[in-house]
Request: fold
Amino acid sequence: MEDRTREVHTHSAWDDPSAMIRTAAYSYAENLWRNQRYRPRCGSLLGVVEGVCDEWRVPYFATIGNSSQTLLHEAGRRFADYLDQGLIPLVLHLADHDPNGIDMTRDVRERLAFYTRANIEVRRIALTVDQVQQYAPPPNFAKETDTRYDAYVKQFGTTDCWELDALSPTVISNLIRDEITKLINEPERKLPSPRRSGIVTCFGTPPIVGPRSRSYSKG
Reply:
């Protein structure tokens, strides 16, 4: 279990201005989506999706249960701005395969449409029936007390349900990566940015990996 809310954050510090600039050079990253029509967002398990979303510079968020009104309202305003720019907002949604998790995709889609004043594609990429059959995660019993239970059983013909985090983190990351790469109509630049390389070259030394900053969990 991970708790990211109970941390003490210290301030960044460098030995001299050139050290700070070298760090900035290392951190420099161009917007991979600048010339793309799509603007993907990913919502799922934070610790699992973080790496692949950082790799592709795709915003992401994780929720416990249904997404909050505030979160979707803010997303709706951003998506409306994207639409005004001629861009296509897209949400890649991952959730448990249970009565509530299945319904979450519908809930996110409908509330985003309300706040954006336009239909937004919410693409459910996990967990699906095909993935359950392919990866065989351990089943659980669906909650009969869930108001969506009867509809779930009728739709899928089973009282079993499956949790998203029963899949391997590697599998989940690959599912996200595959969906993201489908959206790109230009080759991704794997090499360091020429601008960043130029900044580093000015100082003649490799960039510092990071500032002298640490976070300590409260004991």
